[in-house]
Each structure stands twice: as C-alpha cells, then as structure tokens.
Amino acid sequence: MFTSRRLLAGFIISLTIAVLIHLLSHFTLIIVPWWILLTFRWIPIVFYFCYGCKKRKLTTWIFISMLAGVEFGYDVPLVAKEMNIVSQIFIQLVKTIIAPLLFGTLVTGIAGHANLKQVGRMGWKSILYFEVVSTIALFIGLIAINITGAGLGVKVPEAMTQGTLPQVQSQGWRDIVLQIFPENIAKSIAEGQVLQVVVFSILFGIAVAMVKETYRTPMVRFTESLSAVMFKFTNMIMLFAPFAVFAAIAYSVGHMGLGVLMNLFELLGTLYIALLVFLAVVLLPILLIMRVPVKKFFQAVAEPATLAFATTSSESALPLAMENMERYGVPRKIVSFVIPTGYSFNLDGTTLYLAMASLFVAHMAGIRLSFETQIIMMLTLMLTSKGVAGVPRASLVILLGTATSFGLPTWPIFIILGIDELMDMARTAVNVVGNCLATVVIAKWEGEFGKENQQIEPVVTDNIP
Questions:
Q1: Is 464 within a domain?
Q2: pLDDT in tens, 88-104
Q3: What is the domain count for the chain?
C-alpha cells in the first residue's frame, strides 16, 4: 500500500504545503497558530522517515537525520544545545578505526605485492595531481569572491566583532616538515596524526617486503586479517551515524539559530556556488577525461560525502570512503596510500575556502587589495595550505597567518567563525569527493583500475533498521 514512490511523493507534497503555509504566515497573509505550523513542519519528516524504512539506505537515513535535526534544533534549542556529545562519541569511535585500518591496508598493499617502485611512482603522481587540482581550487575561490564582492559594505553589529579567537600556534616550514615524520607511533596514534601513521606504515611495509618469506608471510596474513576486522568494525560504527548526524545538526541549529544565515548569506552562498563550480568544471571533466563512469562514481562517494557534510568531519568519512572506493574498483594498496595522503595535501574544499575567506576579511575591513597583491596572497596560500597536516584548527591557523602577513585586521574572523561550521559542512564534503577521485586517477595512471572490481554495495545499507 505505502510504496517507496508514494511515500516520497507524500514527502514532497507535504513539504511544499508546509513551505507555502509558512510563507503566507510570514507575510501575514493568513494567521496560523504556532502549533499548526509545527505540525505541518513535522509531517514531511514523518513521510521521509517512513520512506527511509522502506529504502534502508545509509545515505537516506543521514538525510532524514539532517532534516529532523534542523527541525528539532529549531523547536527545542535548549535540549539541542546539549546534544553535541552524541556526535562527539561517534567521531571518537571513528578515530579508533583510522590508525589500525591505515596500518593494515598500507602494510598489506606494500608487503603483499612487494612492488616498491610502484610506491615511489604513486607518491610523485599523487603529489603532482594534488598540487594542480588544489591550485585550481584556490583561483576559483579568488574569482568567486571578486565576482560577488561578499563582505563589501556590510554593517556588522558590534557584538559580532568582539570575542576571543581560539589559541593557535603559528607553524613555520620546519614545524610543518617535522610533523610529517613520527617520533613515537603510539603518540602519533593518540594525537590523531594521520600523515605520521601513513609514513610509519609505509616504512614498516617496505621493511616487511624486504625480509625473508618466512617472516613476511605471517606478518602479511596478520595485516590482512586486521584490515578485514577493521572494515567490519567500520560497519558496526556506521550504524550509529544517523544518530550522530541528528545530534550534530540539532546542536548547530540550537546553538546558532537560523538567523545567522541571513546576516552572512552572501558569503555562504558564494562558497557553496564556488564549490559547485569546482565540482562541475574541475572534478567532473577529470572524470570524463579519465573515462570513469560518472554515475557509479557518485554512487560510491555519496555516503562518505554525505556523512562528512553532516558531521563536518573528514575523519568520520575516511573508513567509509576507503571501503567504497575499493568496492568501486580501486585496488586497496592505492586507496590506502592516496586517500590518507590526500587528507593532508589535497583538501580542495578547504583551499578554495581559504582563498575566499582571506579576501572576505579584506572586504569586511573595507580594504581594497590590488590584483597583484591578491595573486601574491594566492601564491602564499599555495604553500601554507600544504601545511595543514596534523595542525589543530588548521584552516584558522592559515587564515590568521595570512591576515597578519598582509596587514589585515583579525576581527572579521569572528564573523567567519560564527558560521564556520555551516561552511565546514560543504568544504569537508568536497574534500572527501576530491580525495576519492584522486584514488581513481592514480589507479588509472597505474593501469590498475577495475582489476579488483566488485559490486558497489555501500557499507551497512542493508543493516540499518
């Protein structure tokens, strides 16, 4: 009786009616009691919930959680403000997966094939690809902010210019280089230093590949078993994802409210449009040039990108992205090398955001930067944005450093921090998509795409109740 198609139609119709009633009420064309407005807002959510029960897909449940979280945060902000702990629990659980998963997959990929030359080839090809794509992202951000002029002539309430910026430490080039190499692997794991774990795993994998077969075989079997167990562990943790998404969105709305969107809609809109342009004019052509099936690719990245968008955490999507790309046809040895490395050097969404945010600071302060100065700023960001590896609040460190270097005030950063989480949702999702695409590009260059192809069955989609 209630098929998926009918439930989806019911959701669309009820949502349309709810929007119309709210618009009429907002412009005082009709008078509607608050409890009726509340009822009309929850009806489409109920329809979508029933649709999710039919579809049993993780992506669908994440969207349901986002929609319900927005409504819950708006209706019950006092409760929603206390719900951030749920999403924090989820992210902490995901962090426990990352180090053993990377160690197992990297060591298996290197020692299991014993092709050390390929590791070197993947290294320089990955760095070349990362540099070209992230530089294009920087200039798209620069062009977008100059076209829209976001921040120019905006009257900022005095309260929004006051506050204390989080304490961050400046990073010189020596600090950045040193942070790549681990001094203590246990410390690297505890601090979540992904790149250090990758470096240790690569060196360990090379060492395993160089020892006698008697010693290599049991170690490879162990790392293969570890990888298989950690992917199953990921499946278990992903069952908790919709609850974490609901809590994260509810907390954001309850904490900030929806009004903050109006004050900074121009900046938000510019960022979202620029990211869509980047996807359309950079990543999509790369897919077409590399002759990658576009529809299947986006099916593979839909879940990790949606999860990253909702939780504003790249780490939460890393295990899911790795498994989905392996299912898509990228060999595990390439996935386990490229994605973790890309999380440090190929943050396309973040680099685009930094270009925009730097110019936005100047616009808010009423400072007009010449074209030459803007180019120099972009060249600076090309270098400094590569140093985000392992730096807490990395984008803030780079933004503060850029503002100081070019004589810009720091008070506009208070305004940016007010909606940083909303912007972080989009840029994090683009980071994940960009890194997933990088694995496909490297696999194509290595002539190994599709050799380990399996059916694309997104993780835990059949286990969501």
A1: no
A2: 888 788 778 878 887 88
A3: 2
Angle, in degrees to the nearest 10, between helices 241-256 and 84-111:
130
* Predicted confidence (pLDDT) per residue in 39-48, tens digit: 888 888 888 8
Paired tokens of 193: 């230093």
For residues 337 and 126, give the distance between their C-alpha atoms in angstroms, rounded to a whole number: 9
pLDDT of residue 391: 44
Burial class (CB in 10 A: 0-12, 13-18, 19+), 446: middle
Q: Is the pLDDT of residue 256 over 80?
A: no
**Cα dihedral sign for 319, 322, 328, 333?**
negative
Closest by CA to 422, choosing from 262, 226, 292, 237, is 262
Range of the domain at 37: 4-55
49 plus 133 within the same structural domain: no
Do the Cβ atoms of 96 and 321 come closer than 8 Å? no
Domain with 417 in it: what CATH number?
1.10.3860.10
What tokens appear for 52 in the block? 């999710």
Compute CA 39 distance to the chain's CA centroid, rounded to the nearest angstrom.
33
Determine contact, residues 69/242, Cβ cutoff 8 Å. Answer: no
Tell me the CA distances in angstroms from 441 to 286, 390, 404, 447, one per residue in order: 8, 25, 37, 10
Q: Read off the pTM.
A: 0.72
Q: What is the pLDDT of residues 210-241, one digit of tens each?
A: 888 888 889 989 988 998 888 888 888 888 88
Asked, for residue 218, whether it belongs to a domain, the answer is: yes
What is the structure's pLDDT at 395?
A: 67
